[in-house]
TrEMBL record:
This is HD-GYP domain-containing protein. Residues 104-309 form the HD-GYP domain. InterPro entries: HD/PDEase_dom (IPR003607), HD_GYP_dom (IPR037522). It comes from the Bacteria. It holds the Pfam family HD_5. It comes from Brevibacillus agri.
Length: 362
């Protein structure tokens, strides 16, 4: 299969990877043939990339670090709990919500089990979902990314659970923010910005009232918008004054936000997102944690369609953990844009191809 921007797909193309609704259920499943109507509807729903079947790349399959079933169960759990809080905001005044922490412990243990069995796989977040589901899918992606960093740091079981619960629930304060503030396309007023920023404290207050959620997990909600140089909020903390869990969640949050389409912009490619993050090391983010994070993320994920400096285009067929910016590419078109007679592969890490670079993701 190959991943393409929605502007490059056409009627008759067949979906190779399912697209999900906000609650984790399938919207369009693998094997569905696209029509003009489907394509337009997907654009309206905020889907900007698709995985498409292609006989030349049928054997190229992106491997996620967690199973589809694990992801579906996690998104469903987040969706049910978060929408309950949105619909019943008075619940935040309760001392403790029954089974709240235990439900998310169970969810993250499933995620952790999958992560632990695939330690050497570079993270490739390949799930596709409607834009209205961003809040719920984002929570699961942040937990996955944070979990990868926690494992790389050698956290013990207790630390992993504290980090994982904090990552799954880091944005829970947003359930108390008027939904219209989430997707404003205009610049926020000072009052709107202050209201939005207060979600960190609301999330912290909600989580610390739960008897089965650690207070350090709650600090992920409080501090994920703090920045390493002290320019964040709500308390303008800097450096190591920010809890390490929150510093990890901050990186995961921004990375997944960048590679996701939002109402006010298109998604970044993983390579552009990682470039942005690295440029912000020790300014917005802890540089050492950032380096660790980037060692475990696929800059050019498998099945990405790319253009090379040689003029060829192709699909990433393998990634190289030792040089994440030098993957193996299956060439599909010549320099002049014509299809090659027979697809062939080049390893950008080999000496003979060292002068060739990836120019952009298509």
């Amino acid at each position: 299969m190959r991943k393409l921007h929605i502007t490059s797909v056409k009627p008759g193309d067949v979906i190779a990877k399912s697209i999900f609704q906000e609650n984790g259920n399938v919207l369009l499943g693998m094997g569905v043939q696209l029509t003009e109507r489907y394509i337009e509807r997907l654009k309206q729903l905020g889907i900007d990339t698709l995985y498409i079947q292609d006989k030349r790349t049928d054997d190229i399959i992106p491997e996620d670090v967690i199973r589809d079933e694990t992801r579906k169960q996690a998104v469903d759990a987040v969706y049910k709990k978060m929408t309950t809080l949105m619909d019943q905001p008075h619940m935040k005044r309760r001392t403790s919500l029954p089974d709240f922490g235990s439900a998310f412990q169970k969810v993250f243990k499933e995620i952790l089990q999958d992560l632990s069995s695939r330690k050497d796989v570079l993270v490739n977040l390949s799930n596709l979902h409607v834009m209205d589901g961003y809040f719920f899918h984002h929570a699961v992606n942040v937990a996955v990314l944070a979990g990868v960093v926690g494992l790389a740091k050698g956290y013990n079981q207790q630390q992993m659970l504290e980090l994982g619960i904090g990552a799954l629930l880091f944005d829970i304060g947003m359930t108390q923010v008027p939904k219209e503030l989430w997707s404003l396309r205009k610049e926020l007023t000072a009052e709107e910005r202050q209201r939005l920023q207060y979600h960190t404290e609301e999330g912290f207050n909600l989580l610390r009232s739960q008897h089965n959620i650690s207070v350090v997990s709650a600090h992920c909600a409080l501090q994920h918008h703090e920045r390493y140089n002290g320019t964040g909020y709500p308390r303008q903390l800097c450096g190591k004054d920010i809890h390490e869990y929150a510093r990890i969640v901050a990186i995961a949050d921004v990375y997944d936000a960048l590679i996701s389409p939002r109402p006010f912009r298109q998604s970044y490619s993983p390579s552009d997102a990682t470039e942005y993050l690295f440029a912000s090391g020790n300014t917005y983010f802890d540089l050492e944690l950032l380096k660790l994070f980037l060692q475990h993320v696929a800059i050019f994920p498998i099945s990405s369609t790319v253009q090379l400096s040689s003029g060829h285009t192709g699909v990433v067929s393998r990634v190289n953990p030792l040089a994440v910016n030098r993957p193996t590419i299956r060439i599909l078109t010549n320099e002049d844009g014509s299809e090659v007679a027979a697809p062939f592969e080049i390893n950008l890490y080999d000496k003979e191809w060292m002068s060739v670079t990836i120019v952009k993701t298509l």
